[in-house]
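Shipment paperwork, digital attachment
Item: protein structure file
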Amino acid sequence: MAHEETNCKIKSLDELCGIIPALKEEGKVIVQCHGVFDLLHPGHIRHLEAAKREGDVLLVTVTKDEYVGKGPGRPVFNQHLRAESLAALGFVDYVAINEWPTAVEAITKLKPDIYAKGSDYADAKEDLTGKIHDEEEALKSIGGRIHFTDEITFSSTSLLNNHFDVYPEEAQRFLRKFRNGHSAQEIISLLQDLRRVKVLVIGDAIIDEYHYCRPLNKSPKEVLIPAQYVHEETFAGGIMAIANHIAGFCDKVDLITCLGMQSSYEGFILEHVKPNIGVKLFYRPEAPTTIKRRFVHADLLGKMFEVCFLGDGALPEAISQEVCSYLKSHIGDYDVVVVGDYGHGFLDGDIIKVLCDQAKFLAVNVQTNAANMGFNLITKYPRADYICIDEAEIRLATHDNVSQLEGLLIRITEKLDCHRAVVTRGHLGSLVYADGSGFLATPVFSREAVDRIGAGDAYFSITSPCVAAQFPAELIGFIGNAVGALAIRIVGNRSSVEPVPLFRYVTTLLK
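Attachment content:
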């Protein structure tokens, strides 16, 4: 019977829209609370009780699972269990699962008289998302008011971090130690200071196509597996993805790349880079812009097959000289030059020489892929201030498949006169090297991978200005792995890693 009563309290937002006007006609004062409520604790109970005292009817809206912006592993309890827990409280009258990322639409739809928040939300300046301001504006528009309760507070995130296995075991050990020396506020403040860093991004343009399919039965006449086409997406990949990641954190970002005059995708690229990115394009005749067309299982997101459209022969000398001339005139305007070298023919020896000779701070990522295996190595750069490559790439560059990574990193950094380097290692995390302070291994914070394409680019992109700003080595590993954990939950380069989700995830990790 109690379970039935609990379920009767759980309504859709549309159902509540039919119930609330009748309650108001009876003179009832409607109070709304909103939150994730991932682990219901005494602080929540005190807050909800205090909110109920402000009116007659208490309704609680719950953040939908897909909008819980606390990073991988959250919520621990799904939206239905969280709604049931709240509905089990005697003083809660109704519970609804919110349909939107914020409470603004629910406030406008439900029109409560009072919207109650905890005292820890009273200072709007501490709200990284800006939601409190938006919620207050929504309340004003319907004639309601906001009320801040002043009750004992706890953190669901802190309780979950300390008493539940939210993260892999190695990550839990790392984070317990890391929290003793660093706070979320410190790291977020440092990341916010990157706004004034001026960044030039240069490298290969890549158009990523995802063609979603469902495999059919084996063909009776051929040795092949047919697939049914479902739909497709096109993303701005390669150096455009790197620029988009950085542009969320740095206000001044300029991009230099080269397109093919056959199927240039110029319009698409200009539409899919952020507004604060200045774009300088060069053009290669008789070649297409690089396209990587991946056929992807529509349900499992596994890659089935890939077709590449490449025009990655030697860059014509006249174009190379144009690029060099442009760089010599402008490279001194930037604090950081970020190179994304995918080995598709744009960055030739002359361009590399200008970059190495004249960049104030040079961050380099040289990638190995199916088209350049063994030919596109980090050692083609005679100098770098920061390099970020994966384990296979450093082993190829040193022709060494057995030695410890630490020794290989020292060999490469000495060769490039490089003082900071990272080797990304997939599920094994990352290894950071800093001249003077040695090596620091950081474990992965999440193994919940939707798509690993672009995760290394995201790590490199956001850590590059961090290294240029002289963040401590342990922060590079922490920030990079936090970025990576967010990036592997994004399909391809559908979107970039943005500051607010990263800030919230950092806060979650360090509670």
